[in-house]
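Narrative summary of target 7.
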Amino acid sequence: MRKILVTGAVGQIGSELTMYLRKKYGDDKVVAVGHRTQPSEKLRNSGLFDFMDCTNIKQVENTVKKYDIGTIYHLAAVLSAVGEKNPQTAWNVNINGLYNVLEVARENKSAVFVPSSIAAFGPDTPKDNTPQDTIQRPTTIYGVSKVAGELLCDYYYLKFGVDTRGVRYPGIISYETLPGGGTTDYAVEIFYKAIKNKKYTCFLKEDTMLDMMYMPDALKSAVDLMETDPSKLKHRNAFNVTSFSITPRLLAEEIKKEIPEFEIDYDVDPEKQAIADSWPNNLDDSIAKEEWGWSPTYNLRAMIKDMIEKLSEKLKKQ
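Modeled conformation, tokenized:
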């Protein structure tokens, strides 16, 4: 078996996907790479780790050849809120970095998983039960880069036969790693504040509806898609996936069932609110269910109970 490479392996999804893949395929089969941030002790000690700048095609090529990489989970990216503060860097990382990965994958016959995002949609997209194939006119550089990335991955499959696959992630909730500058970050921060301070000030309006997913399902969706027989896939990239839709008010009410003294108030960030308002309320993931059997494990209640339990244990050790 050729090795698996995870880029962006120090980030919120990448750090957990690396461990998930190592548990599934073996510690010595999964190479984690980051840009500058040092990995956790757990990540570094569990298997191979290296540094790589995805915007430098020579570094990408050297890494893929050095470790004989057969599959790349390309997670290195600049997220929505951070991207708006530095759109040039976001474009360079999200598009030029992806181009480099696809080019090296083409030359080395490697498969590539590239996550897209709910941010690939815009204010003209149908907000409810958003279809797999619909209008995409995002208003952030992150969203624009994700749409371009979806098309680029399709092109590399159609033109060069590169086995590209991907999902459109909603907001990801996790107790392991803090989020890295996304608009849905409140849904992680709220748990930390609820457990530690019993109070949280949310940067989105209380009735802002957004799709979310618990991290174990995000990891499962990526690996399940990559393991699917390619003959079953009519779509290749950017499958809608989701688990549940929530507002800050609804999430707070559910948390209060576990932590009765918890309180929430609101100090709306206009920039983040504008981004959230441009995204769908909920996605139609029926195509993913039909083509590769996608099915989430965690609903809202199951996520909240597990999140509070696991995060409480983690915080006690700090």
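The chain has two domains: 3-170+215-240, 173-212+243-281+298-316.
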